[in-house]
Amino acid sequence: MDNLSFGTDEVGLVDMDGAGTNGVGAHGKSKAAHNPDKVVAVLGSGDYGRAISRRLVSAGYHVLIGSRDPNRSKIKALVRQTGATLTAQDAAIEEAGTVVVAVGRDHYDHLPLSLLQGKILIDVSNNTERRKGPHYRSNAEYLQGLVQDGKVVKGFNVLSAYALENGGLQGSKEVFLAGDHADAKMKVSEMVRAMGFHPVDWGSIAASRDIEDVPLRLMPSWKRPVAVVFGIFVFLWILAFFSFQICRNIQSGQWDENWKNIPLTNFNRVIAITALWTLAFCYIPGLIAAYIQLWRGTKYSRFPKWLDDWLKMRKQLGLLMLGLAGIHACVSVAYITPQTTGWVYEEPTKFQAEVVVDANTTTTNTLTIYNNEFNWRGEFFLSMGAIATCLLVVLGISSLPSVTATLSWREFTFIQSKLGWVALITAACHDVFLAWHYMFLYWGCFRTLPIGPQYALYPPFIAVIMKLPLLLPPVDNYLQKIRRGYERGSQSESNKKGNPS
User: Fold this and answer.
1) Residue 133 CB coordination number (10 Å)
2) Most buried among 41, 407, 446, 450, using CB within 10 Å?
3) Would you say domain 9-216 falls under CATH 3.40.50.720?
């Protein structure tokens, strides 16, 4: 996730009683009036133009909103709320060195293009659909073509008007920049930081094509993790369906049994195992990477692409796992009772009663009074599940951008690594204590295939086995040495061997 830090909305408010006749507060004017770099023109008085103007004013800039008709009373009232100055487009451009073009591409031709020559032009527009083709030019490239001597910088298009006006919700969000003029990008980067966001340079203006496509993509970094977790779920659901419905009915010969368990019982089992597998898959790629570094003796060689992609989606896998674990916990609260999971409760009390069927017939029935007290295994099962859930919530919260930004690297590593491993082991113990009797004494379909609690532990067991050698002091010290920059067989190492002094 992006490392975000939240700001406050109060800095964007303007005291209307302290505003001058032109709509700019005295405080904002005193900070900016004598610094030409702090004067910005915004072409466009729509929602986005007013939102970015308000944010700029709160950052200490003197903002001139250029409108084709600055005398409209409705526009005057809206602009006055931003703390900016409403004026004609020509006047705004002449006074400012930086111009924010907050109008659509269709209106570029109607701007006073001759006045924009030599100015820093920030193009904030977006496309309504992704455009491709050999002759396609982005909005920023099109504007650069219209204003040959202007210094066009693409930026801010990833922020909505709502995000700009409510910066406390998206403070320090990354703002992607692209342009062919380094000095212009430097000044825009300073502006981005002053507004409470984080600039990221994507390169030349040609990169604006990709930047303009960013808002059109729906969670691109989540598609692969969601597909992976969904694939695991489907595989485990088919396995559970075969084990608990098809196989059992084949063995019993009664094909009307166990079908009612599909919506809840099967679902809860599969969700739990999927969550445990996903948690293990968050740590296995890091272990594979460690062994690769040990084998190569360096950290400066690239990992295989499949491993690199796996490492990059661990965050999404972890959050998906947290969601699955939460669903499992909620369903289990309603599902686990002495009738459905009797082996984790104390033995029930059974007694026989003679029941009169009719005047001449009686029968003896066995009645069961269930005990709601957990046995020792149930106590461990419940406590391990509660601890694992708590730790997973801590892991999820610590990965939120606003929380991550407040943690040092050591604190973040402790939570995500140390506590993460404790969560994995605790969740595995939760599974073991749930099915203690069945774990080692019982096999599933046709008494040959493993049951759910058994194969739920396969990925966690692999992760733990891979982790143990890395905990040995000689191995751990050597790995840490590599990660600090040591390279086996490097020139510096050879020099040390040849010059013992």
Assistant:
1) 6
2) 41
3) yes
